[in-house]
């Protein structure tokens, strides 16, 4: 019984050493996670980050958003990007850029909600 227990412990220890040896041959990270997220390749993958606010505002009006709501929404995108209004406006501008009829039709409920709720005027 003691010999079997000793054999199990020895096998576990050798397996751990083998795993540590495999891990030691992997390359070391050269930067931090925040540096990697800010790298140019990541920014390119995320797509267009500098949008034309005037064009976006025109697209919002084309979708049926009221003038005041469109202006307030563009302000929210610039000054309060994590607000609920900014999230909705970001969704609408992305869908308007895509020009997909299905997306534009599904956004009509959101346009009516934004116009009636006053969520962007706060």
Describe this structure in words.
With 122 residues, the chain is mostly helical. The chain folds into 2 domains: 2-46; 53-117, no CATH class. Helices cover 75% and strands 0% of the residues. It has 7 helices and no strands. The chain has helices at 2-24, 33-37, 40-46, 53-63, 67-79, 84-98, 101-117. Helix 4 packs across helix 5 (67-79) and helix 6 runs antiparallel to helix 7 (101-117). The longest helix is centred in the N-terminal third of the chain and has 23 residues, at 2-24. It is elongated and about 80 Å long. The N and C termini lie far apart (75 Å). The model has no long low-confidence stretch (mean pLDDT 76).
Quick rundown:
It is built from seven helices and no strands.
Q: What is the CA–CA distance across the termini?
A: 75 Å
Residues in β-strands, percent: under 5%
Structural class: mainly alpha
Helix content: over 70%
Q: How many structural domains does the protein architecture include?
A: 2
Number of E-state strands? 0
- Average of pLDDT: 76
Order of helices and strands: HHHHHHH
Rg: 27 Å
Question: Major sheet, described briefly?
Answer: none
Protein name: Secreted protein
Signal peptide: 1-20
Biased composition (Basic and acidic residues): 38-60
Keywords: Signal
